[in-house]
């Protein structure tokens, strides 16, 4: 079974990658100026108090010992206790991760709903005015900083028109869709622009391909040609693009979550960095790496099943 | 990472016709015009700005747009128009310096590992995976925190991460080009590796990289302004669009002009780079 | 409605002006915070969002009087200091209960105070270093001291000495005190404290709920037990602009930490009361006074004349106008806010005087174009404004001011290592006594005089002597001398005091933020 063999090989290759990620993040956080003691109590505590806190947190141990503990504990599924939140890192991450995933999936779905049809319109009217208008509008969306467009949406749609709540994320599924609509739209403005560009190119490529020109010349109705060839090609390229940008998408929610007060992992990461919460930063980074790697793998598997030209190597 | 799949075909139409074709596209012309004007503002802000962008006037704070101050004044009484214009220098510099080193390193590394493959390629694969699976903003924020905030350190941070995307792109292109006859012919004729890579493979494989570069420059401005919002980018009192927007967003209902004008500047510049990139793609790959 | 000015807010804080609708009971107050609590436990609270909520869930033996100059009854209805200053005797009120109805006894007091002064547990144990032993029989609690301690009564009114239930701690899961505390907090519910509320819900980084403690001892204006509201719902909204929008949209009843640049706009809003509560918060900038910088180059700021010159060249009123839109006042004591006990009013410190500044600079022989780096907090609009203004204000002195933006932890590390020229900083008292802030800002052994490296033997010995001085007049004199010494040698750029800005909807009355920052909801009401 080629697929199983390939999957196993990819999973094996992830081991050195994760190890590399662990080394980088472990060293990076310790190179950051300041430490958890200073970040949390430093603005008021005396030098002696800080020394006591460091002792308690085990920050006085040699780096190698700390790294060894990090690796061995991680292998046992223990990411340590957050210094800032004083709770196990795994609990905190599992508490907050679903919100970010929800927001990301929501935003991607919205992007597809917006970008999909418009990409077809743009591609079929290539270089005519609908194409120009659609591309310009998306480009404007792509160029707006999240912390600006987010606030504009909040000010007008939430605070003044009161169509949406200003913050929070609701309890039920429907409530969540309502609460997270504005943050999702904000993220979608960016992703839909990228998806639109990519889809448009992919569709044009198929339309220009000889076999499609031939099919059209043979008199096959456009709808059939589009359905058969274009859709598949468009799907492959979009899934590939989304898979590749999943990392950027999820870490991009950092600013969105701050502006909209959404308690996801993006904001958590920012808090963790500012508090120099070593275990939490390490745990979040590793979780992120695992998540992104798995999505990459799934993308490649999906691609290879849909497109016979993509050989698994 | 955008439309690289669609851009790999080889050019067959003569250079002159291609330029004529490109010049007939309004998008390309508009893009070139925007970037040209932006470059001019960036190089000579003093010629166009009516005031010293950092001159504080305690008695003229947050004034609405007027003939004296077409974009109004900010909370320190500084002229907004002059600040937006002077920010062109920083933001255009960002677009170039945050990307050009990443591109250079990426192109060289990508070409080498694509050509030689083997162990180097294996190691490269793991490094790429590690960097790509690392949360991008976290890496940039941490590097900036370690090195200290400021534009130069921000460029270093973005380069440390950004080169990977160029290298991946270049590697894939080189591998694709290696399948073509001319590369094989070069090897048969006994050309040196260096000659094959830099004289033959690289020029043919560079097109998607250049197109991606245009998008990347627009994204670099956005990223730079996000870091400015977090206080990790340009340093005060230097005007930078992200910082200007961040300063102005608190007054979005009372002094809207403070955030709107730099917002328009970011959008216009991003649009310019993108149109130019699309135009270049057509220029280097004339299809329809 | 007009925003309340400082004086009016003082009146509100004293609670002499009982809210007109104090008998309005029930309802839930929705409150938007700038940052969330992580763990509310008297001895582990180390960040302001934790410290300032301790008083809602727990009670202290004594309380600060509303004006902050003395202590009044808390869980203890009376207290007495022995003549030799070596013991304090307190009498607990009768019939005290924790929020679950269990009795609060002397055993709980002993347990709580021993926990609070255990240096292996609490970062605040140093504040209670003078305590030798705590004992109790029936309602009488006796605290014996190793040496006289003029601050001890204030310490018994401070968050870290709040009383927790011994039996709840003994029954809690966890291998040690930290884990027990975390699991009690995670479980929530009544019983661990006796404050006006108990924790009834908590979502990390997003929300927190307090419910009224039905067994609270304090009585409201209507003769029934406080608090008036059924509970308080907190939402965490870190972005200033979003937090204000949330209030304007009516989704919350109050929003704290309003940026001063928005105060005027909210004061003009008829549906919102913009409160500016007097605080012990001071904004100042430590100056590196060491002979050489950390990199070995000579430090121009080691010369007291240069430090005085930049102080004179700083137009504080202009800064207050630019940064606080006028909602603040220049520091009048070099070591503390005017609201703190024992503060000397030395008038506006180093009032703007460019001629004096230029003369001092010339006298010190500072070369034109001398570079000085000003370290600010990244992302802080206030700090950027301060920098831009100072750069222009100091230019006539020939000082080329450069900026370095860092995050809070980096700034803290630089302060400790002395790798800075000048940096922004702020302080809010945790204790209703000046010893904490004076030790921090001026005493070299505590924290190198707030990282400045300033060392004045006379100051240090005055501070150490004052730590055991129980004669109020002598102590006041020592504090006056310290303030004079400190002002003259200017180890700080003295800036200003700022109030706490909290905007509340018209439906809310009686909410108070104390000068120490504590959020007080026990007398708050909401009318719907």
From TrEMBL, chain A:
Transmembrane stretches, start-end: 12-32, 101-124, 136-157, 177-196, 234-260, 280-302
Subcellular location: Cell membrane
Pfam name, any one: BPD_transp_1
PROSITE patterns attached to this UniProt entry: ABC_TM1 (PS50928)
Main location: membrane
ABC transmembrane type-1 domain sequence ranges: 97-299
Keywords: Cell membrane, Membrane, Transmembrane, Transmembrane helix, Transport
Entry keyword annotation includes Disulfide bond: no
InterPro entries to which the protein is assigned, alphabetical: BPD_transp_1_N, MetI-like, MetI-like_sf
Bilayer topology annotation: Multi-pass membrane protein
Superkingdom: Bacteria
Keyword flag Transport: yes
N-terminal signal peptide: none
Family membership noted in the UniProt record: Belongs to the binding-protein-dependent transport system permease family.
The name this protein goes by in its record: ABC transporter permease
TrEMBL record, chain B:
Its membrane topology: Multi-pass membrane protein
UniProt keyword annotations, A-Z: Cell membrane, Membrane, Peptide transport, Protein transport, Transmembrane, Transmembrane helix, Transport
Classification via Pfam families: BPD_transp_1
Main location: membrane
CDD domains, alphabetized: TM_PBP2
Subcellular localization(s) per the UniProt record: Cell membrane
Every ABC transmembrane type-1 domain range: 88-277
Transmembrane intervals: 28-48, 85-115, 127-146, 152-169, 209-234, 254-277
Keyword Protein transport annotated: yes
Superkingdom as given in the UniProt entry: Bacteria
Matching InterPro entries: BP-dependent_transpt_permease, MetI-like, MetI-like_sf
Cited PANTHER family: D,D-DIPEPTIDE TRANSPORT SYSTEM PERMEASE PROTEIN DDPC-RELATED (PTHR43386:SF1), OLIGOPEPTIDE TRANSPORT SYSTEM PERMEASE PROTEIN APPC (PTHR43386)
Similarity comment: Belongs to the binding-protein-dependent transport system permease family.
Protein name: ABC transporter permease
Organism encoding this protein: Parasedimentitalea maritima
From TrEMBL, chain C:
Residue stretches making up the Solute-binding protein family domain: 71-445
Principal localisation: periplasm
Keyword list, A-Z: Signal, Transport
UniProt-listed SUPFAM superfamilies: Periplasmic binding protein-like II
Domain of life assignment: Bacteria
Extent of the signal sequence: 1-22
Family annotation (CDD domains): PBP2_NikA_DppA_OppA_like
InterPro entries referenced in this protein's UniProt entry, alphabetically: Peptide/Ni-bd, SBP_5, SBP_5_dom
Compartments where located: Periplasm
Similarity remark: Belongs to the bacterial solute-binding protein 5 family.
Protein name: ABC transporter substrate-binding protein
Organism in which the protein naturally occurs: Parasedimentitalea maritima
């Amino acid at each position: 079974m080629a697929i199983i063999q390939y999957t196993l090989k990819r999973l094996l290759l992830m081991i050195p990658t994760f190890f590399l990620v662990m080394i980088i993040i472990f060293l990076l956080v310790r190179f950051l100026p300041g430490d958890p003691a200073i970040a949390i109590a430093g603005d008021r505590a005396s030098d002696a108090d800080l020394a006591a806190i460091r002792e308690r947190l085990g920050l006085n141990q040699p780096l190698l010992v700390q790294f060894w503990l990090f690796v061995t504990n991680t292998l046992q599924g223990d990411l340590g206790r957050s210094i800032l939140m004083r709770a196990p890192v795994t609990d905190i991450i599992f508490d907050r991760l679903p919100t970010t995933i929800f927001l990301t999936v929501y935003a991607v779905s919205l992007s597809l709903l917006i970008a999909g049809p418009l990409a077809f319109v743009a591609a079929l009217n290539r270089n005519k005015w609908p194409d120009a208008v659609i591309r310009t509008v998306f480009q404007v969306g792509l160029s707006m900083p999240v912390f600006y467009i987010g606030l504009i949406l909040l000010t007008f749609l939430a605070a003044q028109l009161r169509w949406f709540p200003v913050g929070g994320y609701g309890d039920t599924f429907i409530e969540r869709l309502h609460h997270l609509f504005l943050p999702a739209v904000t993220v979608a403005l960016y992703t839909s622009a990228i998806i639109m560009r990519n889809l448009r190119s992919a569709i044009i490529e198929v339309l220009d391909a000889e076999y499609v020109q031939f099919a059209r010349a043979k008199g096959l109705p456009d709808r059939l040609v589009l359905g058969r060839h274009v859709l598949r090609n468009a799907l492959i390229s979009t899934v590939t693009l989304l898979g590749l940008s999943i990392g950027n998408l999820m870490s991009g929610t950092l600013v969105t979550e701050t502006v909209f007060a959404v308690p996801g992992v993006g904001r958590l990461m920012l808090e963790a960095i500012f508090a120099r919460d070593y275990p939490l930063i390490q745990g979040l980074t590793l979780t992120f790496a695992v998540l992104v790697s798995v999505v990459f793998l799934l993308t490649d598997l999906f691609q290879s099943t849909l497109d016979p030209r993509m050989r698994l190597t | 990472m955008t439309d690289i799949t669609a851009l790999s075909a080889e050019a067959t139409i003569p250079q002159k016709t291609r330029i004529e074709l490109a010049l007939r596209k309004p998008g390309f012309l508009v893009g070139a015009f925007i970037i040209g004007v932006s470059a001019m503002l960036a190089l000579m802000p003093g010629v166009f700005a009516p005031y010293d962008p950092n001159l504080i006037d305690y008695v003229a704070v947050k004034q609405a747009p007027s003939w004296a101050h077409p974009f109004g004044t900010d909370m320190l009484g500084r002229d907004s128009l002059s600040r937006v214009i002077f920010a062109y220098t920083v933001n255009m510099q960002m677009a170039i310096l945050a990307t050009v080193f990443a591109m250079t390193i990426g192109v060289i590394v990508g070409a080498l590992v694509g050509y030689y493959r083997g162990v180097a390629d294996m190691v490269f694969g793991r490094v790429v995976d590690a960097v790509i699976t690392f949360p991008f903003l976290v890496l940039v924020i941490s590097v900036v925190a370690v090195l200290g905030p400021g534009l130069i350190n921000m460029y270093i941070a973005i380069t440390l991460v950004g080169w990977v995307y160029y290298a991946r792109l270049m590697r894939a292109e080189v591998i694709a080009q290696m399948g073509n006859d001319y590369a094989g012919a070069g090897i048969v004729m006994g050309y040196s590796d260096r000659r094959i890579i830099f004289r033959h493979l690289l020029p043919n494989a560079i097109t998607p990289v250049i197109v991606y570069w245009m998008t990347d420059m627009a994204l670099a401005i956005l990223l730079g302004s996000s870091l400015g919002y977090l206080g990790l980018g340009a340093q005060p009192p230097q005007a930078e669009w992200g910082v200007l927007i961040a300063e102005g967003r608190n007054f979005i209902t009372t002094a809207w002009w403070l955030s709107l004008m730099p917002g328009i500047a970011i959008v216009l510049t991003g649009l310019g780079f993108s149109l130019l990139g699309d135009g270049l793609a057509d220029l280097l790959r004339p299809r329809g | 409605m007009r925003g309340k000015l400082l004086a009016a807010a003082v009146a509100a804080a004293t609670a002499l002006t009982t809210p007109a609708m104090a008998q309005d009971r029930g309802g839930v107050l929705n409150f938007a915070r700038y940052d969330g609590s992580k763990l509310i436990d008297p001895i582990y609270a180390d960040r302001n969002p934790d410290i300032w909520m301790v008083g809602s869930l727990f009670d202290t033996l004594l309380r600060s009087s509303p004006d902050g100059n003395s202590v009044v009854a808390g869980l203890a209805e009376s207290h007495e200091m022995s003549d030799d200053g070596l013991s304090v005797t307190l009498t607990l009120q009768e019939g005290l209960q924790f929020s679950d109805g269990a009795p609060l006894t002397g055993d709980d007091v002993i347990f709580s105070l021993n926990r609070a002064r255990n240096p292996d547990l609490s970062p605040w144990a140093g504040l209670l270093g003078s305590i030798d032993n705590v004992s109790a029989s029936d309602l009488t609690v006796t605290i014996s001291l190793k040496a006289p301690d003029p601050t001890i009564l204030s310490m018994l009114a401070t968050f870290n000495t709040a009383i927790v239930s011994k039996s709840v701690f003994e029954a809690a899961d966890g291998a040690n005190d930290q884990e027990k505390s975390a699991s009690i907090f995670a479980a929530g519910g009544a019983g661990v404290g006796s404050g006006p509320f108990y924790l009834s819900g908590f979502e990390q980084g997003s929300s927190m709920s307090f419910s009224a403690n039905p067994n609270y001892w304090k009585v409201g204006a209507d003769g029934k037990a406080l608090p008036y509201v059924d509970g308080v719902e907190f939402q965490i909204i870190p972005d200033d602009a979003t937090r204000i929008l949330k209030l304007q949209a009516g989704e919350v009843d109050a929003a704290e930490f309003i940026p001063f640049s928005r105060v005027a706009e909210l004061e003009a809003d008829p549906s919102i009361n913009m409160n500016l509560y007097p605080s012990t918060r001071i904004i100042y900038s430590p100056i590196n006074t060491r002979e050489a910088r950390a990199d070995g180059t000579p430090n121009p700021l080691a010369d007291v004349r240069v430090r005085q010159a930049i102080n004179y060249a700083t137009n504080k009123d202009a800064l207050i106008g630019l940064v606080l839109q006028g909602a603040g006042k220049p520091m009048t004591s070099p070591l503390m806010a005017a609201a703190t006990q024992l503060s000397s009013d030395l008038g506006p410190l180093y009032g703007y005087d460019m001629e004096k500044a230029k003369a001092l600079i010339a006298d010190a022989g500072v070369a034109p174009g001398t570079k000085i780096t000003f370290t600010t907090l990244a992302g802080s609009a206030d700090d950027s404004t301060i920098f831009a203004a100072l750069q222009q204000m100091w230019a006539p002195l020939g000082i080329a001011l450069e900026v370095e933006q860092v995050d809070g932890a980096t700034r803290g590390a630089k302060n400790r290592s002395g790798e800075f020229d000048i940096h922004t900083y702020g302080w809010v008292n945790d204790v209703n006594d000046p010893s904490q802030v004076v030790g921090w800002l001026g005493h070299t052994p505590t924290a190198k005089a707030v990282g400045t490296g300033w060392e004045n033997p006379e100051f240090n010995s005055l501070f150490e002597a004052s730590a055991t001085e129980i004669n109020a007049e002598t102590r006041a004199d020592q504090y006056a001398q310290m303030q004079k010494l400190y002002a003259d040698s200017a180890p700080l750029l003295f800036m200003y005091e700022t109030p706490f800005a909290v905007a509340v909807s018209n439906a809310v009355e009686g909410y108070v933020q104390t000068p120490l920052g504590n959020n007080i909801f026990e007398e708050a009401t909401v009318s719907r």
